[in-house]
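Limitations
The structure tokens in this dataset are predictions for the assembled complex, not deposited experimental models. Users should treat interface geometry with appropriate caution, especially where small molecules or nucleic acid strands are included. An illustrative entry is reproduced here so readers can see what is and is not provided.
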Amino acid sequence: MSDAGPQEEDLHLSDAELQRRASDIFDSVVELDASERVTYLDHICRDDSTLRREVESLLESLDGTRTSELFPQLLPADAPRTLATGERIGPYTLAGEIGEGGMGVVYRALREDVGTTVALKLVRHGRLASPEHLRRFLLERRVLGRLEHHNIARLLDAGVTDSGLPYLVMEYVDGEPIDRYCDAHRLTVGERLALFFDVCEAAHYAHRHLVVHRDLKPFNILVTREGVVKLLDFGIAALVEDGGRSDARLTRSGIAMLTPEYAAPEQVKGEPVTTASDVYALGLLLFELLTGERPFRSEHRTTPELLRAICEEEPRPPSEVVRRLAARTGNATEESRIGAIAEARRTSPARLVRRLVGDLDTIVLEALRKEPERRYCSAHELRDDIGRHLSGMPVRARGDSLWYRSRKFVRRHEAVVTASALVVLALAAGATTTTVQARRADAARAEAEQRYRDVRSLAGALVTDVHDAISDLPGSLPVRAVLVRRALDHLDELYRQASDDAELRREIAAAYLELGLVQGNPTSANLGDLAAARLSFERALSIAQSLVAEDPSDHAARRTLALAHEKMSDALAWGGGVLEGVGHARDALEQWDYLAAANPGSVSAIRAVATSHIKLGDLLGNPNLPSLSDAAGATLEYREAHTLLRAVPGDSAKEWATRRLLALVRERIASMLKLEGRYEEGIAELEQTLAIREGLLRERSASANALRDLAVTHQLLCEARLAAADAAGALEQCRESVMLYESLRAADTSNAQSGHDLALGRLSLHRVLAARGEVGGALAQLDGSTALLRALLSTNTDNALARRDLARSLLYSGTMHARLAARRDGEETERARHRTSATSAYEEAGRLLLGASGRGLLSGEDSVLVSRARSELERARPRR
Amino acid sequence: MTSPPRHEVTRLLESLSSGERGAVDVLFPLVYGELRLLARSQLSRERPGHTLDSVALVNEAYLRLVDQGDVRWENRAHFFGVSARAMRAILVDHARARNAAKRGGGGVAVPLDDVAELLSDEQAEHVQQLDEALTRLADINEEASRTVECLYFGGLTLEETAEALGLSVATVRRRWSFAKAWLGRALGAED
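Predicted assembly:
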């Protein structure tokens, strides 16, 4: 409608243009009332009667069109799928729909055997994905079920329908959302504050039980006919998300399910959700109860705009918002709006402004701070300030710096209370806090002792039960990452106060070890953060060292010490410090020897010594791992381990763990044989290894470790056969291993090791294909391994081995491209393309290898590669 | 058919938000394929007579296709926008096939078997008419047409629709009104 002139009638608008103009006008008038529409149309359409008829016809059609007829219920687009009254879910009979929330539909339901009415919430998007999810869902339900407060609607039950949808059963509350209740009953500001006081009280009760709501909003806060506040859905957001959705959700705050308008800045940013997020939500609620407005009104904002405002825009003080509304005279809608707002509070706009200025402005803004740590540090504090205001005392939020400082001090110790994803962990963390505080108060000594014991058993459960239960399941890493973060907070706090208790310190050391393993143990499933892992191992090591120094007969501490040395050794070696790693490996061996001597006849002690020999041997000269290239030294250690294991008596020799270790030693010996050029002997050892491992896998088919062992064996057999010039045999083995690696990778894509394994498998496969002259196929394998290794390095730049392997992968690529470029029969453009690819691959590999050689990770093979790639590149250059 | 790697879809979504137009062409078939697959499994899992829950489908596709550790809010919105378009295509393809089969005409493009019983005969007829009307509406007011796509076919909420289309909720509401008015007239006249 750029140049709509007065003669437009003559311009003869085409039908489409007419409709487009009508659509613009429709847009402007659709929200006006009837008389305003007429005025507007009179003005805008002037004497274009065709256009006016068109707009009017549309408006008529809108009034006459029923949405349900236009868009029949083939998809539940407007309304969610509903179940019929009388249908049964578990022991409940549905008695009618109550409403729809963010997560699903809520029904009133009857439990006939007990004769009670309940609210049953059927979770729409949540399908429980695995037995593990179900287990956690039910576990957390129990914790939530313990909340008993007369202002909180109780969670009574939870379960899963026949078709796999989770449902929750709650106390049935017959009430109205708090904002509507306040307006309908025309509650004064004082009366509103009194209700809000109860809301804070209830929220604080839940927080004390380490349950965070995460989605507090008027819709979830009902007031009954008797005027009693009832909070719904406490902890439900966490329960539903964690129970029902993918693991990736665990690491985020799950904003997808929240109402953006009510989200706290940290929720928008995907940072951890804590009790402070609920305090923020309470601030929003107070804002709305006082002013009838929301601080970041969303109707005319797009969601990204709204989200940005939540994170960046400072909210206006409530009094200011009301003042501005009142100042906007001349607009009938706005005037009646502010009139209604004041009226619903039995006051005038001016008096309302005066009521809000000062205390209430300050309290609201204090709760709505962008940074969680600058808000009231609990719902209780917020409640207290409301109480002070109501009784005319000075509020703390306007307070002095001393109070602010002391509050920060308290906050430091409450930082561990970040209950959300895993309630078990939240419990552990929270109990710590309580311990710290309770221990300070002499009067509460008995309670403190009890708490202390709780902490201990929770710490135990944390690292053993929970962790062990999931550690060998593919796909469990994201869950373990959450465990780690929580557990670290918890342990650091515990460590600070445990100077005088040997048993507790031992447990703490063990827990640090477990944590380190999840963070970055290079030899099993891990999160790929070697630096963090090393820190945890160091802590474990120093605690264990001091324990052993205090009491040399403390075997448990010595065991922890040995493990800590072992893990330090691994972490150092894989981070490039092989020599330091060897030192720790020898220290570990010394401790295991001591323990085996102190426990004669203990098979597990013998296994530990054997394992330690293998680890030391690996660092000395395992050709497939970072090592000092001391082949003779390595062989000696492996043989020692072999001798020890063969000496294990009959029954113990049949044990799974013993056989697994024996297979490992044979695999290592085979590698050394191959290195010496004794191929046939090496292959024979590997065939033996394969047989043992196939047996092991048959016994534990769900074990990812057993599956990986098998894949490694196939890969080694492939390499051995290739070295023995049996390319066909090698190919068969290689395909087998890559297939196994791929299935491991698919089962757990966030596992750094499975990516590295697959990359190495592809490198081997490339070698076989290249040896058979299948250059294109070889190149494809290299592209795969290069991509995998790059991805690995992008999350963990510290992984020296991945860096070296990437360099190798690139070097091989360069060689393959150079070979293709040198083909006489190739087209010149193709050859030029390969030359370019070869050059860039070679250059990048060169840079990477330069870095690796500084850390002693370059083998003779690598040096040969560099020069070979260089000469092939030379050969590929066009001759003049 | 296996799902593409999650980071691939995430990357495509990123190029979408940076305005790379070709990304939709690559993304659309991925999402279309996944939703179709999910629809089939959803229908086989539910009791007979159950309708398709497009909300659940789109959410499930999102979880399966997108690497959520990396994806930003806006990209999620783009995904929902593409899903809505894909859901429309799935239903319309199905409706066409069904209508063609009913009329006994040959040359059915999409096999019925894999998303069987998605629509009743009556609904299939309606969906095809609606789709044709929507295509005409797009020429009059593209945003209104897309709004219907998101709200109705994609099962998105007002807020999600606003995100996907880069509009405010208020604007989406007005576009929805216009679409209803326009479609009501167009379809009413044809019946």
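Some entries come with short summary sentences. For this one: Strands of chain A lie at 88-89, 92-100, 104-111, 116-123, 155-160, 166-171, 175-177, 221-224, 229-231.
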